[in-house]
Amino acid sequence: MLKRIAKYFLHLVLWCAIIAAVVWAAMLSKSHKESSLVSATEIDIEGGSDNSLIASESVDWWLKQQGVHPEGNILSKVDIATIEHIVESHSAIAKANVYTCYDGGVRVDIRQREPIARLRISDYDMYLTDDGYLLPAEGCHSAYVKVITGDYKPLFDAQYSGYVESIVQDSIASLERYIAELERGKIPHLKRHIENNKALREVKRSSPKKSIFDSKDKHAILVTAYNEHLSQAIAQHTTNKRAIDADIAAIEREQEWALGLRRGLLRQAEEFDSMVAMIRYIINDAFLGDEIVQIVATGGESEPLQLAVIPRSGDFVVDLGSAERLEQKLVTLRRFYDKGLSRIGWDRYSRISLRYDGQVVCR
Q1: Start-to-end CA span in the chain (Å)
Q2: Tell me, what's the pLDDT at 16?
Q3: Taking each helix axis from N to C terminus, what angle separates 216-284 and 326-336, rounded to the nearest 10 degrees?
Q4: Which of 195, 197, 184, 201 is nearest to 248 (CA)?
Q5: pLDDT at 34 over 60
Q6: Residue 357 buriedness (CB in 10 A; 0-12 / 13-18 / 19+)
Q7: Cβ–Cβ < 8 Å for 315, 323
């Protein structure tokens, strides 16, 4: 019994010592932070490999411009949340983690987005990252990536930052709300149809019934008057029906226009995704990644997206056609490089077409 009590007592003493040590360490750490100035700020950027869009010097400058640079401040007064928010406000940065160190330093760990292509068409100059994110090139370091040129008309504006999927989802949701609103707009016109039909039925029900007290001539007069009234009611019913149908048809045309926009958005998004997948495929292929330097894109709005690539070797353009079966076309291109161009020469053709499934047409 005494041994058990002694054992429990020792456990209690041990736990009390641990709690006291933790409290003491916390108090010591708090005291240290309240009395120490930030000695250094270390900024570490992960990702980007040789194509970094930002540099630690830029981040350091942003913090100074915003007046939140930690150096010179008391360690406990460093506003970690604000620093993280400012750093993450740059569209090239996916995530920032800021924390203080016991040695008096502040560490800013940054994970940046990886650029895979640069869109340079018309007023557009923006980077496309490996996760499908788009950001304006302004304010970024130049990255050596594939360049997309041509007269392609994207479904986003030139200053957009974000995912294409977000634009599509927001736009489709807006269109669907508009289509539903138009559908609700049909209700008053459908009610007009009901009232119009009701008015004609009431006229038809008012046909005169011959009474035993009515003479044959009087009944004939009543029938003549009824037939004239019924003829006018039918004509008015037809006129009203045409007007109501025209109003409903106008709403349905507006709905069809909105549905057409919806179909166009989905098509553009699918084509853009196919182009991004193609770029990833090119980058991941050691030969094609080095050989293909430029992508030419046309269409994209009212016209389907058409793609071509410009290689580093030779003096020709490879026409890929639509955004369908792009991976298969690139496999065919690689096979043609290995078995065709290596024998006939690189400068014999000015244009190579892979538009047709499994065929290579040279001109």
Answers
A1: 100
A2: 56
A3: 40
A4: 184
A5: no
A6: exposed
A7: no
